[in-house]
Amino acid sequence: TLVLFIPALYISTRLIYKTSFSSQLTFGRKWNWKLYIISAAITLAVYVIYFLAMGAASEMNLSKVSAISILLFIILPIFQAFAEEYLFRGFLMQTLGSWFKIPIVAVIIQAVIFGIIHFQYNVTGMIGVLVSGIIYGFVTWYTKGLEISSALHAVNNLTIFIGILFTFMSSSDSISSMGFVVSIALLLVPACIILALNKKFNFVSCDGN
Questions:
Q1: Which residue, 201, 208, 84, is CA-closest to 141?
Q2: How many CA atoms lie within 13 A of 200 on its CB side?
Q3: Are 132 and 126 in contact (CB under 8 A)?
Q4: Rg, C-alpha atoms of the chain
Q5: Is residue 139 in some structural domain?
């Protein structure tokens, strides 16, 4: 898992680039816990509404599910999401941005690499991961931090893990066209809501630079 690479990545960036851990999380400002919590809550609400509307509650199988399993399936996806955001939208996108000086180039390249490493999926699934990477990259660039992308990614992973655990989602690596559309919509809808609320209440300043 990528979580194990975080300490090594942190040490290498400290030694080579002389940068702090926080500088890989946010760009020119402090980490905003309020934005992270609000983003996670809104994203979770969107996912819950969708799955309830699709009747997922009636398909849940609670038998043979231990408390330890539930705890692990909650904690692991959150840390996995943070590790991937730190690596791709933090370290990699900042590094690419310093090379190319054009934000959209850095956003797209890191998303392509993000999609490629998820080679266990079929072509539709890999394209879905690539598009997700672009969404994560855009909100990271726009808000100058990983709070929203980390929250979106964590809830997405959490939903998949819990869905598989309670058997109302398939563990198949073959993603259908409808699955692709739904997964992207479930990222775009909360992302748009969060950015709209941020514009109104100014959780963090976003000037797009």
A1: 208
A2: 6
A3: no
A4: 17
A5: yes
Structure confidence by residue, pLDDT tens digits, 143-196: 999 999 999 999 999 888 877 766 656 656 678 888 899 999 999 999 999 999
Backbone region of residue 104 per phi and psi (left: phi > 0; alpha: psi in -120 to 50; beta: other values):
alpha
Phi and psi at residue 63, to the nearest 5°? -75, 145
d(CA 152, CA 85): 10
> How many domains does the chain contain in total?
1
pTM of the model: 0.86
Instruction: Report yes or no on 177 lying in a domain.
Output: yes
Please state, in angstroms and rounded to a whole number, the distance separating the CA atoms of residues 145 and 100.
19
Q: Which of 149, 150, 171, 173 is nearest to 162 (CA)?
A: 171
The whole-angstrom separation of Cα 58 and Cα 198 is 35
Phi-psi map region of 66: left, alpha, beta (phi>0 left; psi -120 to 50 alpha): beta
Residue 98 belongs to some domain of the structure: yes
Tell me, yes or no, whether 188 lies in a domain: yes
Look up the domain containing 176 and give its range.
75-209
Average pLDDT score over the chain: 84
68-104 pLDDT tens trace: 777 877 888 888 899 899 989 998 998 899 898 899 9
C-alpha distance from residue 66 to each of 55, 63, 69, 122, 163 (Å): 23, 9, 5, 31, 15
